[in-house]
Amino acid sequence: MIPISCKVESIEPLTGVVSKVLLAPASPMDFKAGQYLQVCMSEKDKRPFSIANAPRDDGKLELHIGAEAGNNYAAEVLERMRLHQTIDVDGGHGSAYLRENKIRPTILLAGGTGFSYTHAILQRRLAMPNKDPVFLYWGTRTLKDMYAYESLKALEKTHPNFRFHPVVDCPDDNWRGKKGWVHLAVLNDFVSLEPYQVYVAGRFEMAGVAREDFHNKGLLLENLYGDAYQFI
Fold first, then answer.
1. Cα–Cα distance between 223 and 196 in angstroms, integer?
2. DSSP state, residue 145
3. Most distant CA pair in the chain: distance in Å?
4. How many CA atoms lie within 13 A of 182 on its CB side?
5. 132 pLDDT band (50/70/90 cuts)?
6. Exposure on the CB side of residue 232, measured as CA atoms within 13 A
7. How do strand 4-13 and strand 46-50 relate by DSSP bridges?
8. With contact defined as beta carbons under 8 Å apart, do 106 and 197 qualify?
9. Omega cis (within 30) before 92
């Protein structure tokens, strides 16, 4: 793919380690909700990040980049964006995009900044006339790491077919919601996953265990999507 030059419109902190980046491409990028782009650091150094929005009328691209201590892979991308205010990208890539011609009741499963992938699919899914239920399970270490918590709770109120289930690994004493591994929360809530399509983003270890456990719970593997499954 030919790289597209993008103006870096803004870089805003979402948490102490996660930044929201808004890019304005010089020419339109053709992509589907759930695909990713590659940031071109050099001809041979291209770094993938999920596009955190569905295609929008103004063509802008949103990224959620987590750069915790020691993660130079992401930190170097943010540093270049701040320094130059432009960046070259190419996309869309990936086969785990929303299957708009095969909509079923949908479960979105995200760990950490894997939420950006599910966020794009959620935006597009709720904009469609199909009113089959959509469930988002998002797991983070603490509630403070769940940077879109309030906006997702508000979204539930405007979309009766949407349910948000936050899952916290290390909750404080006041937390009354779901705890522990995010994919186990799904297993606990459903008798069978056979009617559903499931979109997964998170660490490879989680994705691998979820695939096996969800299949044992009735999920047809043809209805399971995630970029991790190209590698594990």
1. 7
2. G
3. 52
4. 30
5. very high
6. 16
7. unpaired
8. yes
9. yes
pLDDT at residue 38 greater than cutoff 90 = yes
DSSP 168-213: ESS--TT--SEES-HHHHHHHH-S--TT-EEEEES-HHHHHHHHHH
Rounded alpha-carbon distances, angstroms, from residue 215 to 113, 118, 155: 24, 20, 30
Residue indicated by tokens 């970029």: 227
What does the pLDDT average to over 8-36? 97
Whether pTM > 0.90 for this model: the answer is yes
User: What is the 8-class DSSP label of residue 14?
Assistant: S
Q: Distance between CA 29 and CA 35 in Å, rounded?
A: 11
Nearest to 40 by CA among 31, 49, 32: 49
Given its phi and psi angles, is residue 59 left (phi above 0), alpha (psi -120 to 50 degrees) or beta? Answer: left
DSSP at 160:
T
Q: Token digits for 102? A: 């095969």
Residue 74 CB burial class (10 angstroms; 0-12, 13-18, ≥19): buried
CA triplet 147, 148, 150: central angle to 5 degrees? 110
Using DSSP, state whether 137 is helix, strand or coil. strand
**Cβ neighbours of residue 90 under 8 Å, at least 6 residues apart?**
1, 2, 3, 4, 37, 38, 40, 46
Q: Cα(9)–Cα(126) distance, rounded to whole angstroms? A: 26
For the stretch 144-198, pLDDT in tens is: 999 999 999 999 999 999 999 999 998 888 899 999 999 999 999 999 999 999 9
**Per-residue confidence (pLDDT) for residue 185, from 0 to 100:** 97
112: its two tokens:
């950490």
